[in-house]
Design a protein that fits this description.
155 residues; mainly beta; 1 helix; signal; Lipoprotein_YbaY-like; Lipoprotein; Pilotin
Length: 155
Amino acid sequence: MKRFAALLLAALLATPASAQSITITRTTTSTSTNTSAPMPSLTDVPAGWRVVSGRISAPNEVRLPSGSTVTLNIEDVTRLNAPSTTRLTVSFPSTRLSTPYQFQYNPARMNPRRVYAVTVRVTGPNGRLLYSSNKAQELPRSQNAVLNLKVTPAR
């Protein structure tokens, strides 16, 4: 499990998320099957930044094909009749669902009058969609939030 966490951390740090003013941090993994995520520590978070963490889970525990990728998108969904605008994309490898995630972001880069939502896509090694969130969940506005995300099999 420690090797998986180190691989996940390396993959997260290798993404261009830092160019989006996002800092990816390692989550605390537990060996229990508890589906709720612990509240993240704020000791390493820059002043004014926010932390969102949680678990991405399917209806049942699922083993994913080797090389699968989980992609979280933060989207501006303010305009109902217009396509959403992706503000942030975070991708990391995973071999199972349920899997933990955590990201930090600077709310100064977000317009407080807009509505932001979080969506999830899980793709296989060939890029084929395996799972996705069937509805977007609003991005929490609290400084330290837990947001557990559910995905369903792609049709």
